[in-house]
Write a structure and sequence with these properties.
Elements: H1 3-18, E1 23-31, H2 36-52, E2 62-68, E3 71-73, E4 79-81, E5 87-88, E6 91-93, E7 100-102, E8 109-115, E9 121-122
Parallel strand pairs: 1-2
Antiparallel strand pairs: 1-8, 3-4, 5-6, 6-7, 8-9
Helix pairs in contact: 1-2
Bound molecules: zinc ion.
């Protein structure tokens, strides 16, 4: 699994969007089957590393995850949701043909950020 690299990518996007503002919450969406506890742990780890490096903008920031049904787009032509039991990490078993395909959605999609002292949520550009 590649939770850490997925989270590092999310955090570096957040840093670009935050431009030095103090981040208190990061909202993101992930497909069912991703280990949300692991993602949150990775987030806390990445944020702690940043703080240690002297960047305090994410100190105490929390990751809030929303899970959505996992979808695949298979070579057999099937496109659609996969049963939670047929998902492992970022792969799913096609209900049409039984092949293992990568999920067709990103492992972690940034939904928004909120900043200290304001209710502002900065949604990422589409
Ligand atoms: Zn298939």
């Amino acid at each position: 699994m590649h939770e850490l690299s997925v989270v590092e990518e999310l955090v570096s996007r957040c840093r670009r969007l935050a431009r030095g503002r103090r981040v208190v919450r990061v909202w993101a969406r992930c497909p069912e089957g991703m280990d949300t506890d692991e993602l949150v742990e990775c987030f806390d780890y990445v944020v702690a590393q940043l703080s240690q490096a002297g960047e305090g903008a994410f100190e105490g920031a929390r990751l809030r995850l929303e899970t959505v049904p996992a979808h695949i787009r298979c070579a057999c032509g099937f496109q659609g949701p996969v049963a939670p039991d047929d998902i492992a990490g970022h792969m799913g078993i096609c209900p049409g043909c039984g092949r293992v395909s990568e999920l067709s959605q990103p492992p972690l999609e940034l939904l928004g950020l909120s900043f200290a002292g304001t209710a502002t949520i900065c949604a990422p550009p589409a």
